[in-house]
């Protein structure tokens, strides 16, 4: 293996280069090389100052995650950062791309930091269930202040070079040739003594009111619920304020090791790679090129169509949006503008960006206008006949090579494709609502979908900042298909004696953002309802028939006050009781464990069927769907990873315990049974 670290002299400045693609992760060879070169520079009298710079697309993006869990190779990253800081000659970090995690810590170990305006700095360790463990929690607040360090470390979100400069985390922003500027800066500071060292005294951690930490915890209680890493980050930053540096570092080390050996970090690290694996399409060669998408067409300006369009507009891709009548078109574009303006009010977009995005939108009542689009996404309501009609029309209008996509959440893409003369150009693009916000995209691969159509969909997803997962054709694809057994069992449990609040509580305590009934009330109990108030076959039918459609009507499974605060409903309870009585179901005490087994274990079972039938490429893709589409707590890795960590034999035992109650339509996944029997796992 070639040495990733090299050096060259520019006059009396030594440049230490790292060249470790793709992201200059701080693996063992990089760490060893950095120490070697810093020591060499210190020993060489002709060298007056040092610049540390990276080749390729980014400054160090952090510790090498692939080394986690393996026997440690010296030197440790904390030692490397300490060694850089201890250098008797000024060291300047030249930052481009993303200085993340250990990369940001290396930058903090340098005495000065110079960055391109496009650079970003961050502590994403929390997303891996960790904390900056190379002095970042101690140096960070000393340099950037407690407030910013807390925000960076507990949310993991990177900040721009501009913000870093304002906070003192970057000394100078330069345009053009970064390394040339860094060398010039090193020349300027080569005789400065004493050197500014981030581990030393800082006014920024003096006189910090201790209530800052309690207030921060309270303000973010919902966000941090169940998650151990954010609080460990907070405790370390608190230690930076309360303890001398040497002791603070020990606190950081202890907490880092605790997190690293805990289950949440393992789950999150698994998920990091799961997310990246999802982008890979099985059976499709790397050499397949995506088609060029210069303009996107969207059919339907409702909530979905509007949200979908916004993704492309925000990414700078023009959109032609088509509706049936002017009123619907105006309403749809009006909602899009309002959404953009609200983003701008929150400071996440400028007025010019709003104008720019809306300027790329071409509203139209003429279907023929779709002829100029390279990708056309149908986003009308769920009805096979309507969709077939639209695709027949599209087949006559769309240009050669255009991709024809449906945003259906359940329907058969093969059947839709069959009405066209180009089924190879047809694909499912299932966005999740609100489509401009939710990160997940299910890319549904029809029997005849061409490889380059899939490659285009995956590349485009990345461009619009979605996480895409390939799904096969089946009712509800991956996510919604797994929702079906959960919903069925949740309703059965109501009749057997559980309450909506008990079931929801179990899910929320598990870490889901909301339970099945809270979700139904939010999304609309009436979604997919047959609309016949006389036909009452389920509790849901009964609620819909009396207008309890959820939050939008002020009543659903719960009652809502004017501020949409829920409370248990006696009316709903009496409907449930009536239903149970009619069906001769005897009420009994339902334990929380039974709720877990019947609503979560059954989901795992369905996931196993999906995997077995080849409707998901890999178990980890199912996990990606659930984390990004439904808010499954990432610190539990996703349903399949979670099942593995519980033990598949435990899942099978639980399901066997419940089997009689699950209903005649329910059946075991053979794959689950086989894997449990063999002591195997889905995800590893
Ligand atoms: C840490 O630093 C701990 C320290 O505080 C304390 C230690 C004591 N290591 O995302 P992409 C791979 S924890 C190894 O598709 P992008 C990635 O798997 C670390 N590999 O690119 C992928 O491989 P493949 C804190 C890594 O342009 C390829 O690089 N740092 C690492 O969309 C391309 O990645 C982080 O958490 C890594 N650190 O985004 C940063 N990072 O091609 C994690 C990436 O085989 N990384 N790879 O699938 C990122 O956030 C993004 O990768 C980045 C680039 C923004 C850098």
UniProtKB/TrEMBL annotation:
Predominant location: other
Domain called 3-hydroxyacyl-CoA dehydrogenase C-terminal: residue spans: 476-560, 595-680
PROSITE patterns attached to this UniProt entry: ENOYL_COA_HYDRATASE (PS00166)
InterPro entries: 3-OHacyl-CoA_DH_NAD-bd, 3HC_DH_C, Enoyl-CoA_hyd/isom_CS, Enoyl-CoA_hydra/iso
UniProt domain 3-hydroxyacyl-CoA dehydrogenase NAD binding: residue ranges: 296-471
Keyword flag Lipid metabolism: yes
Tagged with keyword Cytoplasm: no
Family under the similarity heading: Belongs to the enoyl-CoA hydratase/isomerase family.
Protein's recorded name: Enoyl-CoA hydratase/isomerase family protein
Gene source species: Sphingomicrobium clamense
